[in-house]
Amino acid sequence: MSKSVIKFKNVAKHFGSQTIIEDLSFDVAAGEFITILGSSGSGKTTTLKMINRLIEPDAGTIEINDENIENIDLIELRRNIGYVVQQIGLFPHMTIEKNIATVPELLEWDLKDIKARVIELMDLVKLPYDQYGQRFPKQLSGGQQQRVGVARALAANPQIMLLDEPFGAVDAITRKELQKQIKAIHEELAGKTFLFVTHDINEAFYLGNKVMIMDEGKISQYDTPENIVKAPKTAFVQELLDTVYEEGALWGALK
Ligand SMILES: Nc1ncnc2c1ncn2[C@@H]1O[C@H](COP(=O)(O)OP(=O)(O)OP(=O)(O)O)[C@@H](O)[C@H]1O
Prior knowledge:
- By secondary structure, the protein is of the alpha/beta class.
- It has helices spanning 44-51, 74-79, 96-106, 111-124, 129-132, 142-154, 172-188, 201-207, 225-230, 235-254, and strands at 4-15, 18-29, 33-38, 59-64, 67-68, 81-85, 160-164, 193-198, 210-215, 218-223.
- The chain is 42% helix and 26% strand.
- Adenosine-5'-triphosphate binds at residues 15, 20, 38, 40-46, 199.
């Protein structure tokens, strides 16, 4: 088995008197693409944010490369973790080139290396540098801006990518296109570990080599898409799958 990159051990999180996560344990191996699926409020975003310490757990430990993240310098930790959210957060007054170069510039990379990295990443997300490098975010579509967000998160070559509903705000056709691209990017960047939060069951089962299904702060099932479909473990998982089967039946009837 591949080496574990992320390990949750009996993690708990409360907000005030509300228990969001009671006792969460799981492992993610190097190079996996994990999708986290679940109903609203089930703790998906909280789980993701505990990995880059935007949220601190109240109990338990989280390890990255077998080291408790509390013992890793915060800047070092976040440099190793790319983070993409739905509300993109590109800097509006900066060109696309400058947006992608933010972290390498902070790290004081050589100017030549920064430019080469920007060109490489813009190629990767299919926004050629010559055409898009000097544009500003508002001159791109929502889907293109999301791709810049992915490129920016990859700039310093992190080992882990956290993606929180990154394609939540785009239309269905663009979303499908972005899903294909992120899958290809993950395959091309062999060895990088992706954790991707989504509400969308189709997206979760298409992208994840493993899907983590969360319900009320607990893992209902964490397995390959095939195993989940073959043997749903809880009524909640079955209910989720039924939504897809019902949709299939609807479209079948319309044809
Ligand atoms: N900073 C906070 N203070 C208080 N409660 C919070 C805070 N952040 C999250 N919560 C609560 O924790 C619960 C889980 O939130 P979380 O964002 O992790 O869920 P989620 O599964 O990502 O939901 P969604 O799919 O709607 O984004 C929710 O009930 C939310 O209201």
